[in-house]
TrEMBL record:
UniProt entry tagged with the keyword Cytoplasm: yes
Family the entry assigns: Belongs to the class-III pyridoxal-phosphate-dependent aminotransferase family. HemL subfamily.
Required cofactor(s): pyridoxal 5'-phosphate
Class in the EC hierarchy, top level: isomerase
Official protein name in the record: Glutamate-1-semialdehyde 2,1-aminomutase
Enzyme Commission number: 5.4.3.8
Compartment annotation: Cytoplasm
HAMAP family: HemL_aminotrans_3 (MF_00375)
Organism listed in the record: Pseudoteredinibacter isoporae
C-alpha cells in the first residue's frame, strides 16, 4: 500500500468520503486520490515523493505557479503581524483598488471567503436590488453550492427548476430557471415570456465546469442586451476566468460588461478568498450602506489579501500572459496531433490559459449535451495513464485544465511524450 492509500483509509474514518470537496475523492475516475505534500512551480509532489506536472493548479488559482517566492514572502510578512482582526485593514483597500483598476465596470467590491459566497451574495443583491425573485442560469455551469444555484432544469426549458441536491427546498428551486449554454434563441424566448420577473442572469463567460466550453459569438452579447431590455442584473461569474483568460477577465477579453462580477481562485493567490463587485448603484445596496445583508468574520483577511495582492501584481506585469497562452496552445495542438496519430477521436477547446480535451467524434464542442456525449470511460483510462506517467489532470472529464507561468516548454514536451504513450494503449 502506498502512502496515499494509507492516508485515504485514515481520512475516510473521520471525513465523509475522506475528502473536503467531493471531486477530490476520484469517484468519477475510480482509484485512490493522490494525497499531496508540497508543490513548487509547475509541480506537485505526493505523500510518497512522486512528482507530477500539475494542470489542476488547485482548480485554477495558481497561475503564477505554486509557492511563488514573492507570494510566499508577502504572506509571511503579513502573518507575522497577526492572523485576523475582524476590523478593517489597509491591504483590503489596496486589493479592492487593484480589482477596480483591472476589471472594466467594477466600481466597488466586497470580499468574501470563497467563490460560493461570492455568487450567493451576488444573487441576493440582484434580487434585493430589483425586487424580483427569478434567476436564470445555464446547464453545465457551476457557481458554487448555495441553494439557489444547485438547481437543474425541469422537463421543459421554461419549466421551474428542480433541486439538484436533496436539502434544497423546491420552493426555492422554482425561482431558478436553467437554460442551455450558448442557446441564444432560448435566452430570447425566456426573456420574452418572463423577462419582467428576472432579477438576474448568472453565467460562466467561458464554461469551465463542463470541461472547457467557450461562448459562441453573440451569446454573452445577447445576455447583456436582454438584461438591459428588462432591467435584470447581469452577473458574470469570473471565479474561474478572472485573470485566467486575460488580465481584464473574460469581460475584457470578450468586450461584454457585467453589472456584477464574482471572483475567486486567482484573485486569492491560493488562499480562501472570493469577491463580488460591480456597478456603484448596485453595490451601494449592500449593508451597511443599503438594505441587503451580507457579512463575514474572516472576510478581507489580511494574510489572504496579501497573497491575492501579490498575485495580481505579478499578473499585471507586461507580457505575463503571452508565454502561458502560447504553451496552452502548444499543449492542446500537441494532444490533438498525438491522438490523431493513434487513431483516437479527440478534440480540444482553449481560451487563454484554460483548456479542455474531449474524447469525441465531434469537431467542435459548444454545449453541455455534447460534453455529456463524450466517451467518459476513455477519459478515465487516459487520466489514470497520465497519472502514472506523472501528469496530474483533473480527476473528472467535466473540468477545465489550467496552465501556469511556471510550466516550461520542457514540461509541455514531457506531457506530450507521456500522452503519446498513453494514447497508444487506449
Ligand atoms: N463559480 C465558478 C465559475 C467556479 O468554477 C467555482 C468553483 N469551481 C465556484 C463558483 C465556487 O467557488 P468555491 O469552490 O470557491 O466556492
Amino acid at each position: 500500500m502506498n502512502r496515499s492509500e494509507q492516508l485515504f483509509q485514515e481520512a475516510q474514518q473521520c471525513i465523509p468520503g475522506g475528502v473536503n470537496s467531493p471531486v477530490r475523492a476520484f469517484r468519477a475516475v475510480g482509484g485512490t486520490p493522490v494525497f499531496f505534500e508540497k508543490a513548487q512551480g509547475a509541480y506537485t509532489f505526493d505523500a510518497d515523493g512522486k512528482r507530477y506536472i500539475d494542470y489542476v493548479q488547485s482548480w485554477g488559482p495558481m497561475i503564477v505557479g505554486h509557492s511563488h517566492p514573492e507570494v510566499i514572502a508577502a504572506v509571511i510578512e503579513k502573518l507575522q503581524l497577526g492572523l485576523s482582526f475582524g476590523a478593517p485593514t489597509e491591504i483590503e483597500t489596496q486589493l479592492a483598488g487593484k480589482l477596480c483598476n483591472l476589471l472594466p465596470g467594477m466600481d466597488m467590491v466586497r470580499f468574501v471567503n470563497s467563490g460560493t459566497e461570492a455568487t450567493m451574495s451576488a444573487i441576493r443583491l440582484a434580487r434585493g436590488f430589483t425586487g424580483r425573485d427569478k434567476i436564470i442560469k445555464f446547464e453545465g455551469c457551476y457557481h458554487g453550492h448555495s441553494d439557489s444555484l444547485l438547481i437543474k432544469a425541469g422537463s421543459g426549458a421554461l419549466t421551474m427548476g428542480v433541486p439538484s441536491s436533496p436539502g434544497v427546498p423546491e420552493a426555492l428551486a422554482e425561482h431558478t430557471i436553467t437554460l442551455n449554454y450558448n442557446d441564444i434563441a432560448g435566452v430570447e424566448q425566456a426573456f420574452s415570456e418572463i423577462g419582467e420577473q428576472v432579477a438576474g442572469v448568472i453565467v460562466e463567460p467561458v464554461a469551465g465546469n463542463m470541461n472547457c466550453v467557450p461562448p459562441i459569438p453573440g451569446f454573452l452579447e445577447c445576455l447583456r442586451e436582454q438584461c438591459d431590455k428588462f432591467g435584470s442584473v447581469l452577473i458574470i461569474d469570473e471565479v474561474m476566468t478572472g485573470f485566467r483568460v486575460s488580465h481584464t477577465g473574460a469581460q475584457g477579453h470578450y468586450g461584454v460588461q457585467a453589472d456584477l462580477t464574482t471572483l475567486g481562485k486567482v484573485m486569492g493567490g491560493g488562499m480562501p478568498v472570493g469577491a463580488f463587485g460591480g456597478k456603484r448603484e448596485i453595490m451601494e445596496y449592500i449593508a451597511p450602506l443599503g438594505p441587503v445583508y451580507q457579512a463575514g468574520t474572516l472576510s478581507g483577511n489580511p494574510v489572504a489579501m496579501a497573497a491575492g495582492l501579490k498575485t495580481l501584481e505579478l499578473i499585471s506585469v507586461d507580457g505575463f500572459y503571452e508565454p502561458i497562452f502560447k504553451r496552452t496552445e502548444a499543449l492542446v495542438n500537441g494532444l490533438k496531433e498525438r491522438a490523431a496519430a493513434a487513431g483516437i477521436p479527440f478534440t480540444t477547446n482553449h481560451v487563454g490559459s484554460m483548456w479542455g480535451g474531449f474524447f469525441t467524434e465531434a469537431e467542435q464542442i459548444t454545449n453541455f449535451q455534447q460534453v455529456m456525449d463524450c466517451d467518459g470511460e476513455r477519459f478515465n483510462q487516459f487520466f489514470h495513464g497520465m497519472l502514472s506517467e506523472g501528469v496530474y489532470l483533473a480527476p473528472a472529464s467535466y473540468e477545465a485544465g489550467f496552465m501556469s507561468a511556471a510550466h516550461t516548454d520542457e514540461d509541455i514536451q514531457e506531457t506530450l511524450n507521456a500522452a503519446e504513450r498513453v494514447f497508444a494503449k487506449l
